[in-house]
Structure formats: structure tokens, C-alpha cells
Amino acid sequence: MSKKRGLSLEEKRERILQIFYESQDFFLLKELEKLGPKKGVITQSVKDVVQSLVDDDLVSKDKIGTSVYFWSLPSCAGNQLRNVHRKLESDLHSSKKRFSELVDQCNELKKGREESDEREEALAELKAIELKYNELKEEMGQYADNDPAAFDAMKNAIEIAHGAANRWTDNVFTLRQWCSNNFPQAKEQLEHLYKEVGITDDFDYVELSPPAIPLRAVGDQMLLEGTP
Fold this sequence. Notes:
By secondary structure, this protein is mainly α. It has 8 helices and 3 strands, in the order H-E-H-H-E-E-H-H-H-H-H. The chain is flat and about 100 Å long.
């Protein structure tokens, strides 16, 4: 024996609407929950079904005092359906108009782009130019390290990093002096702490090495010497 199929949401909505249309009365939610099972809609589903009808403007809802009442008249539902129909008709008209505009636009864009030997040659030439452009762009990237602007930026960055490193070194020396002056009895413990964090006896200011020969100068020298 096959299991009885439950009602779909649309079927439940239709049966709840029958309660309103047959009585043309106002109901509290708890009253609808009692009437629902008589139409085949279980009590637990009535609230969600009624809310879906309210959301679609097929059932009206209003609070009077402390109670919330629901109602729906056949005439109200008919008006709502007519409004929905008009809106759908308007949307359909707008969609057809937009479709027609897109077709016309597509046809205009096709003009001058008909398939021909000249067009095929032009597209092939364009593709070749794009490939050459990408190759040259990639080759330029390989010489980025020799870019004078990049070299100057790197040089400035080194100078900034050097200054920052020595400022922190100066701060470390100042802190060590302050600790020695305020905690002379903890000299051994402080020395042990310094070594743990990497402040050893050779800790000192960073000396900036003499600037390397700019890459531009190297290139000029190679040209003067005839190096390929």
C-alpha cells in the first residue's frame, strides 16, 4: 500500500484561502490553526502558510488592540490577481522591447564585420602584434633591476633602513644605560638577559658600506670596452 502524499505548499495555500472565502470572516491565528486540519493542513503548518499568503498580499493582516486578525475576501483576491496580471503584462512588454533593441544593436555591430579574407588577415595581424607586445613587455621586465629609477629607489630604501636600524641601536644603548643606573645590583641578571635577546658584546651601530658602482656605470663601461 503506497504512502499517502502530503500536500504541497500551493495546495495548502489554496485550502487556507478556502477558509476565508467560504466564511468571509476575520480570524485569529489560533482559530485558523484549529480550522486548518479540517482542510487537510496540519496545525504546525498553518502559521507559515498564512504568512506566505500575507507576503503575497492574498491575505490581509492587522493588529486591533492586542490581537492580530487575518482576513481575505474573494473580491480582494481578484483585485490582487488583476494587479499581478497587469504587472506581468508590463514586464513582458518591457522585456520584448529590450529584446528588440538588443537585436537591432547586434545587427548594427555586425555591419563591417562580415567574414572576408581582408578581415581574417587583419585579425591575424592584430594577434601577431599582441603576441609581440607581450614578448617585449616580458623582456622589459627582465631588465627591471637595471632600471635607474629602481636603482635610486633601492638606494633610498637602504638609507632609510640604515637610519632606522641605528635609531633602534641608540634606543637599546639608552635602555641599557638606564637599567645599569637604576638596577646596579642586577648587573649579572641584566647581562644574561641581554645575551638571551641577542644583544652580545659585538652589538654596535650599523656601518653603511661604500656605495656600489651603479649598474648604469657598469653598462657604460662595458660599451666603452666593446664588451657585447
